[in-house]
Amino acid sequence: MAAIVSCSLNRAFQSTTRRCLDAHFKSCNVARESRLTISSSHRPAARPVVRWFTGVRFMSHGTAGRTAAGPTRRTALALGGAAVVTGAAAAVGLLVNTGHFQRAEMATRVSLDAVKPQEEGDILERCRGFMSDPVSDIKELQGRKDEMRTRMEMLIMQTQAEFCKALEEVDGGTFKVDRWARKEGGGGVSCVMQDGKVFEKAGVNVSVVFGNLTEEAAKQMRSRGKVLKGKDGKLPFCAMGVSSVIHPKNPHIPTVHFNYRYFEIEEEDGSKLWWFGGGTDLTPVYVNEEDAFHFHNTLKEACDKHHSQYYKDFKKWCDKYFYIRHRGETRGIGGIFFDDLDSPNQEEAFNFVKSCTRTVVPCYLPIVYKHLNDSFTDEEKNWQQIRRGRYVEFNLVYDRGVKFGLATPGSRIESILMSLPLTGRWEYMHEPTKGSREAEMLKVLRDPKEWV
Questions:
Q1: What family is reported (predicted)?
Q2: By CB neighbour count within 10 A (0-12 exposed, 13-18 middle, 19+ buried), where does 311 fall?
Q3: Is residue 48 scored above 50 in pLDDT?
Q4: Segment (H or E) for 340
Q5: Higher confidence at residue 408 or residue 380?
């Protein structure tokens, strides 16, 4: 009898989740032309179909990131502390079974060939699906469409659009699209939604900046082992990325963060030193093993498509990076994290980062839908505010991206500090009651678990 009941519940949950996610996927095809700034002569009747796919390429370690006039340089790439990150996500569906999320085919898989026109096709056609025009001029992008700078800018604009549309569907609100320019070179597109029905503050930012590195910024990179050889004391650079932090109202829906970025520095001999960075991590207010398993298992499945060791090492790196040393606890339950990815070659590194962006929606949105209507108490909301305070502490004291942004002339402070929650709380000498769910959460943060 228990098996029959369990099977019935599984089918019911699967059916409910399928309806929610099917509605989400269908919404991604709806045109929102009013928010595009592309000239009306280039506007189509509707946006392109958004697809999540599972095709990836295997990567191994090898040559480091140097291109153009300079020689190719080889580096030792330590998995335990210097390099790569996640892969592509499988289908988005969920199936409850034995207390865990299980992967299920709820969205039609499509081949790499079917997706390629959207991913690497016509620049103008792809721009029509973005939240805004790209930061760089479209004609400029078309003129250098095969360069990594162009391909990465198109990828981060696409990632921003797909995630924003997924969040708008579940919230019912609309992102404010805010373009900004940097007088020293470049600019960005900030998409922010505040005081929504589901999200108290949701931000998905794209930035593409260039110019010369300041000595402070160069010092930070040298401290990570970068050998930078400038010309006449100058280090021309280009940096771009997509970054998002989502702070829900309901304390049972976790905060999520992801960031994927690309750096390129021109040295005195004209060669280019390049690398990628990024990752995705989850910060819940309460321990929920089903959510943790789903989130980490989605990332692990993606990593395993590239290398069986990646998830283990990048999960460990994530726990180490998102650690609040003065509190003796991690910021959340982690995920995956990498920096300075410059091997085995630029094409493989980009393909790997491209597959990373495919995990963003499937690892988070099912968790949001699951807890959408959960009730909560004042005490639970208060604990959420205290945990948000810890989030602020990490971002302002330790986060490398925030520190780099604040050290870069012409940076847009509003976009850098977008990651901070709308509200937070700091209580003097707060300690949760022994045996409480709050104490259980704190125990996990002080001693990170293996969720998969």
A1: Belongs to the aerobic coproporphyrinogen-III oxidase family.
A2: buried
A3: no
A4: strand 334-341
A5: 380
Q: Is 257 a catalytic residue?
A: yes
Q: Which is the catalytic residue, given 257, 294, 296, 306? A: 257
DSSP 70-113: SPP-B----TTTSS---------EEEEETTEEEEE--S----HH
**String of DSSP letters for 247-309:** EESSTTSPEEEEEEEEEEEE-TTSEEEEEEEEEEEEE-SS--HHHHHHHHHHHHHHHHTT-TT
Q: Are 300 and 414 in contact (CB under 8 A)?
A: no
Q: List the chain domain ranges.
A: 2-446
Helix, strand and coil in the chain, % to nearest 5: 40, 20, 40
Whether cis (ω within 30° of 0) applies to the bond prior to 344 is yes
Question: Which one-letter DSSP state was computed for residue 369?
Answer: H
Dihedral over alpha carbons 9, 11, 13, 17 (to 10 degrees): 180
**pLDDT tens track for 202-219:** 999 999 999 888 767 776
Amino acid at 273: L
Distances (CA, A) of 35 to 31, 131, 194, 202, 284: 10, 7, 17, 18, 32
pLDDT for res 380:
98
| CA dist., res. 384 & res. 375, Å (int) | 14
Q: Which pTM does this prediction carry?
A: 0.74
Q: What is the mean pLDDT of residues 263-273?
A: 83
> What percentage of the chain reaches a pLDDT higher than 70?
70
- Domain 2-446 fold is oxygen-dependent coproporphyrinogen oxidase (3.40.1500)
With tokens 């004291």, the residue in question is 397
Q: 188 has which bridge partners?
A: 180, 207
CB 303 within 8 A of CB 377: no
Residue 323, pLDDT > 80, answer: yes
